[in-house]
Amino acid sequence: MSTMIIDRTYRIARENTQAMVIDVQERLTPHIHDHENIVKKIVILVKGLQALGVPIMLNEQYKKGLGETLPEIRELLEEKNSKGFEKVTFSACDNPDAWNHLAQQNRSIVLLFGVESHVCVLQTALDLLDQGLQPVIIGDAVGSRFPYDKKLALRRIRRAGGIITTVETVLFELCRSSQDPAFKTISNLIK
Description:
The protein is α/β, with parallel strands linked by helices and 191 residues long. It has helices at residues 35-52, 63-66, 71-79, 96-104, 117-130, 147-160, 167-175, 183-190; strands at 17-22, 56-61, 83-87, 109-115, 134-143, 163-165.
């Protein structure tokens, strides 16, 4: 069997991955369909990514109007000194400081999770694609007020070239092996 060399890889590799939390804020999140489960998934995801050493960037939309990031998520990120950015643009990529931080990480895969799927998550994903980066939407960790908006947003992102996956799938893919030091932490989070 011969080996082919290709420029594109399909695996999500830890050393090439960073993450963005988008707008999981006090005055917006309670209006999101199934928000309790989405927040639980985000907490699991953040803890797992931290165990894996994946950089996480916090984005908040107009805090004066939408409030702070939910405390259970904000506290996790503050413990690990994650970088945070306030924005008034829907796409996190349209915020120059956030974009510069993202680009400086020199990691081409960007995990996206938060709200709302059909506005800020969608526009950020499309901008990442336009910049040559690979957005990976964590489907069970994103939400919209109405399920149909989420469904169409995920469909549009997938058709544009984004990847849709789940919390459990991405954490185990980043871990790769039960021999990884983070495996036990991730396994306990998923239970």
